[in-house]
Structures are given as C-alpha cells and as structure tokens.
Amino acid sequence: MNRSTRKIAIIGAGLVGSSCAYSIVNQGICEELVLIDINHERAVGEAMDLSHCMNFTNTRTKIYAGTYEDCKDMDIVIVTAGPTPKPGQSRLDTLRAGAKIMESVVSGVMESGFQGIFLIASNPVDIMTYQVWKLSGLPRNRVIGTGTSLDSSRLRTILSEIFEVDPRSIHGYSLGQHGDSQMVAWSHVTVGGKPILQILEEQKERFADIDLDSIVEQTAKAGLEISKRKGTTYYGTGNSLAYIARSIFNDDYRVMAVSTILDGEYGEYEICTGVPAIITRDGIKEIVELNLTEAEESQFAQSNDILRDYMKIIGY
User: Fold this and answer.
1) Residue 68 assigned as binding residue
2) For residue 1, is pLDDT > 60?
3) Rounded distance, CA 149 to CA 126, Å?
4) Is 19 annotated as a binding residue?
5) Backbone phi, then psi, for 192, in 5-degree steps?
6) What integer pLDDT is reported at residue 105 of this predicted model?
7) Helix (H, G, I), strand (E, B), or coil: what is residue 44?
8) Cross-sheet strand order for the sheet of 170-171
9) Which sites bind beta-D-fructose 1,6-bisphosphate (predicted)?
10) How far apart are alpha carbons 213 and 245 in whole angstroms?
C-alpha cells in the first residue's frame, strides 16, 4: 500500500513555534515534524519535551531538531522566527530586523531544494509573506501568511459574547493589515446566517450600546492587550498555523482570511494582505472577492496603502 508521509518543518522554536508544534502534535496533523532554530539546543529541548506527549495522544508524530537541509522534502515549512516587538513598538516597528532574519531563512530553505508550501507567522506578517514570495520564487499560491485569520477569530469571539452564541455560528472577516489599520467587512458579517447589520436595525433597543468602530479597534488591539498582561501572544497564532496546515493536508477547500499576494483581486496589485481565500492541498486555490461597500473599499485601500509605505523600507 502506497502511503505518503505528511511532513512539516517549523523554523523558530520560540513561544509561537513551540505552541504551533504542540497543537500539531495533539491534533495528529502530520507524521513527521522537525524543529529548526538558531539556538539548536532550544530546538532539541522542545523536540524532546514534545516527544514525551506521544503516550497521551491518539497518533504518533516523529519529532526531532534539524537544520535547513531537512526542509528538502517537507510539505510545509512554517516560519515563526523573528524579533518580538518591545514595549511601545508595533508589529511594523520590527520590520528591518525581521527582514534580515527572513532573508537568511528563505535562503537556507530554498538551498535545500524545498518545493512545498511556505506558511508565515513572523511579523509584520503581511510584509514578511510578500518578502518570502519574492525571495523564494515560488508561485503565489504556495506562500501563505496567517494574516487576519487570528483577527477574524478574535472578532467572532467578541461578537459571540455580545450576541450570546457560539463563535462558530458567526461568520465574517477582518481584512487588510494584521495590525492597527485592519478593517471589518460588516456588510458580510452574519450571526446564524442573518446579517449583523439587519439584526442591529431590527433590535435597536437591545443592542443600542454596540459601537462597531469600537469592536474593530478592540479586535485590532487584542494582541496588545494580551501582551500587556503576559508579555506576548502565542497560543492563538500557534493554533491558527496548525489549523491552516491541517486544512492544507486535508484538502479542505476551507475559506479563511490569510495573507496572500493580490494580482488584480480587489483592484490591488503587488501587495500581500489579509483576505478570505480557499485553502487546499496546493495552497491557495482561489481568493474570495467580497462585494464590499464603497466605505469598506476605502478602508481596505487605506490599510493596504499603509502596508505599501512600510514595504518601501525594505525595498519593495
């Protein structure tokens, strides 16, 4: 019987990388998982710790610390390596340092002969994903950033508390930059299939205190609020990476908001930004173009213009 082994490499064995690895192991997403870090002993320690989970999981995953050479036959390379914003810094403030790290990472991975799918979480993720696409030479469907996947999840969680329903019964997306300038396509947000704008109009008294702009701001700044309390965030990002990787391996055709390179979609070119896309075994099958209102189009364009201004810093 022919069986292909699903293989993932995670570059960066810090808090995000190790959280992602933990999610992958517990969900049985792949059969082989290699951890790569500039601090090799850290990667060895994480691999050892994770391997001790096997007795408590339903599947067995081969886990080990490796090098860029191991990326040659990986299906997915997940990149979490990068500088963590210091107090008072935004994700965009780490751009120059992150770009230098990414140059080294992509060079090492591609020299191995890698031809799989890049999955990027390093911040600022939209610009880093664009840089990986440019440096790797891979087709745009095989370079994916986590983008606004976590932001969209945070949005649904906030709304679930307001409307008292399960977050999975809410559908909608944050779009644009994974950061302060992201926007929500409210015209496409539904609760149990019913448009949220219709609910607010029909039940004005019940939801009189709801401020949609405030919810967008709360969504965008959720990571900062977590960082204020515990230093940084990692569980949400780690699990979103595992979720995307699982959707790739399962050929799910699942729609989620990710960072992807636009080539005419939404009237945008030469930019990587958060939009809903169909995820399959080949990466991004298709970008879903929402019919945005005029105001939403303007907000989306403004977010992308901010990204373009920062992209110039590293020569794009």
Assistant:
1) yes
2) no
3) 12
4) no
5) 60, 30
6) 98
7) helix
8) 170-171, 190-191, 194-195
9) 156, 171
10) 32
Amino acid at 259: S
And the tokens for 183?
A: 């926007």
- 154 annotated as belonging to a binding site for a ligand: yes
- pLDDT for 71-111, tens place per residue? 999 999 999 998 876 766 666 778 999 999 999 999 999 99
The CATH T-level fold of domain 149-314 is L-2-Hydroxyisocaproate Dehydrogenase; Chain A, domain 2 (3.90.110)
The predicted structure's pLDDT at residue 196: 97
Q: Cβ distance 132 to 102 under 8 Å?
A: yes
Q: What is the CATH number of domain 7-145?
A: 3.40.50.720
Q: Which of 40, 52, 178, 188 is catalytic?
A: 178
Say whether 42 counts as a known binding-site residue: yes
> How do beta strands 269-280 and 254-263 pair?
antiparallel
Q: What is the pLDDT of residue 91?
A: 66
pLDDT tier at 4 (50, 70, 90 boundaries)? confident
Q: Binding residue per annotation — 242?
A: no
Q: Is 170 exposed, middle or buried (0-12, 13-18, 19+ CB in 10 A)?
A: buried
Find out whether 246 is annotated in a ligand binding site: no
Residue-wise pLDDT tens digits, 131-160: 999 999 999 999 999 999 999 999 999 999
Amino acid at site 262: L
The pTM (predicted TM-score) of the whole model is 0.95
- Determine whether 178 is an active site residue: yes
